[in-house]
Amino acid sequence: MDKSALLELDNQLCFALYACSREVTKLYRPFLDELGITYTQYVTLLALWEKDEVAVKELGRRLYLDSGTLTPLLKKLEGLKLLRRERDPQDERSVIVRLTPEGRALKERAAEIPERVFCQTSLTPEGIESLRDQLRKLTVEAHTQSCDAGL
Description:
By secondary structure, this protein is mainly alpha-helical. The chain has a single domain, classed as Arc Repressor Mutant, subunit A, CATH 1.10.10.10. It contains 8 helices and 3 strands; from the N terminus they run H-H-H-E-H-H-E-E-H-H-H.
């Protein structure tokens, strides 16, 4: 590929991932609207449904979110009465996030979302699994590289 082609938008991995992410997130929107939550709130709840009572710092690592993004997100979810934030009694510097009964109950209502979204794509279950695995690998590699660079 010649140098000028390297800078074409359609040849950028970052743009392909960005555009795809936006379009896939749009597929979730109507289902999340039914629950009264945003996509970022949804992925936060997914992490908490998987492992409740987790330190904010650990949750941030799991979601690849910094505290400047995560703190307002958690405040909003707390305002929706879906979780509580409390200081860790063993380490006052740490804040623990716990789902409320309402937050745990929302999991049941959200259970059908993945299948409803997948049905809107032309991918097979195997294709989705393969793509997801490739994206996870790329995420880990990119994160490791940025960490190695001291970022």
